[in-house]
């Protein structure tokens, strides 16, 4: 079984070997290589102690000396080189209280999380697979190394990592490992929000965002994303839907591109529905105003997860606008006004989530929904062609022109510019200097 190790990583292995130390590439790079995937990083494990590693290489960074890790720089790329080690007790379920260096590769592999991540490789010695990682890859199974309770007791984040790896690789979680996850869910409360967000985002942006349901089934979302539990438990007795809000949400996630903004927008687009559910006298559910209701909830969720502002702003905007225009009563004027408020630069993302939302619904009135969507696309294409004014900056008059007309700078000028934009959005032909100044004169007379 051959793995093509990059030349720079090979050079580090050989330099360690020539100095009398063992060294292997280890972990995710071995797993990905065996699966035919391109590894993101090439990590190295060695019998050399950190200071011995530093003495061998000219350019190193002390990235984790307390845990035996030195980053070796080679042609501008960092390679983490970690000493074989045994971890002490994990009293906080996050990090070992102590680290003991070892001369034995088996000790180092035993402390790792899952069998598929506990394999090492050397170009001359071949694959070292003491815990059946290759077999588990064949079975497409995530299995903890050794005692799963011990592994999750050491680091509760492994609970999320198990589901995240299943989502990224299309695997299932082995039964004993799955049961141990259930037993340790409460320990997630000891894990930092930043670490949880990293794993959750990787899962959400994976090829299998439907694994979010596994988080729900295992009781994980109850700890880290209770809003999703409410969606899973909110039925939709309406002909437009065939499932509850949670399963509809998963379907929408499957139909948008795997970016943070789009996946979080899809995850949270209906987060306001549990609070808006109204059942009429015929037993049919309605969710009036759920986009507006959902925005502050979505923002709260994303801020709690400490997501970046770009993701928060982009996703919350789509939560607000995802239902735009689908009642079939859009006029050209209301369309222009909507695009103006949304921002034309955000419209492609709106189209994406609107289409995904339709894919996650029932076939009820499917032809009408398709026709309404097609009409919105036509109006958007026409907008791109005709380029009407959609912002104050695109008006034929500006602040300077209004000052020349006797309007002082300040709140009044701002209100007049807003009025002129609405005036032009109603009829783009009005966007001429003379017409707008005439409208200003009329405003001042009234």
Task: Report on this structure.
The structure is a single chain. By secondary structure, the chain is an alpha+beta fold. The protein is built from 23 helices and 13 strands. The protein has helices at 7-18, 28-34, 50-56, 105-110, 133-139, 148-154, 157-169, 175-184, 193-204, 212-217, 221-224, 226-232, 245-254, 260-268, 273-276, 290-304, 309-321, 332-342, 347-359, 366-386, 399-404, 411-426, 433-445, and strands spanning 23-26, 43-46, 60-64, 69-74, 77-83, 85-87, 99-101, 120-122, 126-128, 141-142, 172-173, 278-279, 285-286. Helix 7 runs parallel beside helix 9 and helix 19 runs antiparallel to helix 20 (366-386). It starts with 6 loop residues before the first helix and ends with a helix.
List the helices and strands and how they pair.
Blueprint (H helix, E strand, L loop, with lengths): L6 H12 L4 E4 L1 H7 L8 E4 L3 H7 L3 E5 L4 E6 L2 E7 L1 E3 L11 E3 L3 H6 L9 E3 L3 E3 L4 H7 L1 E2 L5 H7 L2 H13 L2 E2 L1 H10 L8 H12 L7 H6 L3 H4 L1 H7 L12 H10 L5 H9 L4 H4 L1 E2 L5 E2 L3 H15 L4 H13 L10 H11 L4 H13 L6 H21 L12 H6 L6 H16 L6 H13 L1
Parallel strand pairs: 2-5, 10-11
Antiparallel strand pairs: 1-2, 1-8, 3-4, 4-5, 6-7, 8-9, 12-13
Helix pairs in contact: 6-8, 7-9, 12-13, 13-14, 13-19, 14-17, 16-17, 19-20
């Amino acid at each position: 079984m051959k793995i093509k190790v990059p030349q720079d990583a090979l050079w580090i292995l050989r330099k360690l070997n020539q100095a009398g130390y063992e060294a292997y590439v280890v972990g995710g790079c071995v797993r990905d290589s065996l699966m035919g995937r391109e590894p993101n990083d090439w990590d190295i494990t060695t019998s050399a102690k950190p200071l011995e590693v530093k003495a061998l290489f000219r350019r190193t960074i002390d990235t984790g000396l307390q845990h035996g890790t030195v980053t070796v720089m080679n042609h501008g790329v960092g390679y983490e080189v970690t000493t074989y080690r045994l971890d002490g007790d994990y009293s906080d379920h996050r990090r070992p209280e102590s680290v003991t260096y070892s001369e034995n590769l088996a000790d180092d592999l035993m402390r790792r999380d899952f069998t598929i991540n506990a394999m090492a490789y050397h170009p001359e010695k071949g694959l070292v697979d003491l815990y059946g990682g290759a077999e588990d890859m064949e079975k497409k199974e995530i299995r903890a190394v050794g005692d799963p309770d011990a592994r999750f007791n050491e680091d509760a984040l492994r609970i999320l990592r198990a589901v995240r790896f299943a989502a990224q690789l299309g695997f299932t979680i082995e039964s004993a490992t799955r049961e141990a996850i259930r037993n340790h869910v409460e320990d997630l409360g000891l894990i930092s929000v930043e670490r949880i967000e990293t794993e959750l985002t990787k899962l959400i942006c994976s090829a299998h965002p439907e694994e979010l349901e596994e988080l729900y089934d295992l009781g994980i979302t109850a700890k880290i994303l209770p809003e999703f539990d409410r969606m899973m438990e909110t039925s939709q007795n309406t002909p437009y839907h065939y499932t509850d809000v949670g399963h509809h949400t998963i379907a929408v996630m499957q139909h948008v591109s795997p970016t943070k903004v789009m996946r979080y927008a899809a995850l949270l687009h209906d987060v306001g529905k549990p609070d808006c559910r109204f059942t009429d006298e015929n037993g049919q559910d309605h969710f009036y105003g759920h986009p507006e209701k959902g925005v502050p909830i979505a923002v709260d969720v994303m801020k709690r997860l400490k997501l970046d502002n770009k993701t928060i702003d982009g996703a919350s905007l789509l939560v607000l606008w995802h239902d735009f225009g689908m009642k079939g009563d859009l006029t050209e004027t209301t369309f222009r006004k909507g695009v103006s408020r949304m921002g034309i630069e955000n419209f492609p993302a709106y189209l994406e989530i609107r289409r995904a939302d339709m894919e996650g619904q029932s076939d009820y009135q499917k032809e009408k929904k398709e026709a309404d969507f097609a009409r919105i696309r036509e109006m958007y294409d026409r907008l791109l062609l005709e380029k009407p004014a959609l912002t104050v900056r695109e008006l034929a008059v500006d602040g300077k022109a209004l000052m020349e007309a006797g309007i002082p700078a300040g709140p009044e000028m701002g209100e007049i510019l807003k009025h002129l934009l609405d005036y032009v959005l109603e009829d783009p032909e009005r966007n001429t200097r003379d017409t707008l100044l005439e409208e200003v004169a009329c405003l001042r007379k009234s």
